[in-house]
Design a protein that fits this description.
Strand 2 and strand 3 form a beta hairpin. The chain contains 10 helices and 6 strands. The longest helix is centred in the last third of the chain and has 33 residues. The N terminus is likely disordered. It is mainly α. Helix 2 packs across helix 3 and helix 2 packs across helix 6.
Length: about 220
């Protein structure tokens, strides 16, 4: 009975893109700026739309953010609290909702805020919230999240293997697969920069040949005269 309850608790529930961003920001700010947490609506919107540590960039407004908060509150992933001066503020319940510890929450937050990443990227970025000493430590956290059904590998094993959270709705998951396949295909073919370099060199050689032909034609014309 306990095993069934545990499995049900760990099962991922798809979230909209806005809800994923809001949840990620709530966890991030709780860890990186605890003195300013819980967050007011204005602070939450600012965190969602900031230019650094975010991919993709977003431009959420009040309505977008409130709808995302409603989605998270219905799932038990966020809560509304009374702040100082009767200002309504918001806090996450990610630890309970996802059934994760602090290292797991840090890794999930980075995946929510930035999308699929390699172990090296996860280790570097998540360490601003929870220090991961090396790649092995980061891999251990990711493996635990994979066992919980919260993270999955989206590229084959090996150097540069990429991992993503499993909270994408089905239509976004399909888009993610196509995007990753295109990136993999691009990495296996000459880069646009490399191709441009080859073309530029060929054009330079062609200019030299044309210049020599012009000189020869001029010399022939002089001899004929």
């Amino acid at each position: 009975m306990n095993d069934e309850s545990s499995d049900e608790k760990a099962s991922p529930v798809p979230l909209s893109a806005n809800a994923r961003r809001v949840l990620g920001v709530l966890v991030e700010k709780a860890k990186t700026t605890p003195d300013n947490y819980p967050l007011s609506l204005a602070a939450l919107i600012s965190g969602c739309n900031q230019k650094s540590n975010r991919s993709p960039k977003m431009d959420l407004d009040d309505e977008d953010t409130l709808l995302a908060l409603d989605e998270l509150r219905e799932l038990g992933a966020a809560r509304e609290v009374q702040g100082s001066g009767r200002v309504v503020k918001y806090r996450h319940a990610a630890y309970e909702w996802l059934d994760v510890d602090s290292p797991g929450a840090s890794v999930m937050t980075e995946l929510l805020l930035r999308g699929p990443q390699t172990i090296g990227e996860i280790r570097t970025r998540a360490s601003r919230m929870y220090k991961l000493d090396d790649l092995q430590a980061a891999q251990a956290v990711v493996d635990t999240l994979i066992e919980k059904g919260l993270v999955e590998a989206v590229t084959p094993p090996g150097r540069g293997q990429t991992f993503a959270h499993t909270l994408y709705p089905p239509h976004e998951r399909q888009y993610l697969e196509v995007k990753i396949e295109k990136q993999a295909a691009a990495s296996q073919s000459p880069t646009p920069t490399a191709a441009k370099t080859v073309v530029d060199k060929l054009l330079e050689r062609l200019d030299v040949v044309n210049e020599r032909i012009d000189k020869l034609e001029k010399r022939i014309a002089e001899l004929e005269d």
